[in-house]
Structure formats: structure tokens, C-alpha cells
Specification:
With 83 residues, the protein is mostly beta strands. The chain has one helix at 24-32, and strands spanning 2-10, 13-19, 41-46, 49-56, 59-66, 74-79.
Length: 83
């Protein structure tokens, strides 16, 4: 099962909303909603894999973690529009 955890900033606080059993298309929609202001963090979990995406407004940092390793397995950053 694939789950999205989407953070919504509300002034100085934030809330995280969980969306269980989502499709790959719904994951992309969550990332596209990121604007770098009140929506700047999306995590996608499937089995022992966690993809954490931070940023928005054309700049993103992506970390991929798995329970098989102590350290993040992969880290990337970049700029550009998500199609």
C-alpha cells in the first residue's frame, strides 16, 4: 500500500494529512501542489521505502530512505518544472 503524508503550513504551525492507498498519479498531484510556502513537504511511503520531497516553486530536494540502511539511500536536489 502506498501512502502520502502531505504537510500544510498554517502560520507558525503545520499539520500533516495522511492519504492512504493512493495511485502514482495522486503522488504526482501532491508534489505539483507544493508551492514552497504553505505546502513544502510531501512524503510517500510504500513498504520499507520512504520518498521525502521538500521545496516547491521549481526547487526541490528529494531523499529516499529504506529500512535496510541507517543512512538515506539517495539524496538529490535540483531546479525545474515538474511536468
Amino acid at each position: 500500500m502506498r501512502t502520502i503524508y502531505e504537510e500544510f503550513r498554517e502560520g507558525p504551525t503545520a499539520r500533516i494529512v495522511e492519504f492512504p492507498d493512493v495511485s502514482p498519479e495522486e503522488c504526482l498531484k501532491a508534489v505539483r501542489r507544493m508551492n514552497g510556502a504553505n505546502r513544502s513537504l510531501v512524503s510517500i511511503k510504500e513498504n520499507d521505502l520512504m520518498i521525502i520531497i521538500g521545496g516547491g516553486d521549481e526547487a526541490f530536494v528529494v531523499t529516499i530512505e529504506t529500512s535496510r540502511h541507517q543512512e538515506p539511500s539517495w539524496l538529490a536536489s535540483g531546479r525545474g518544472r515538474l511536468r
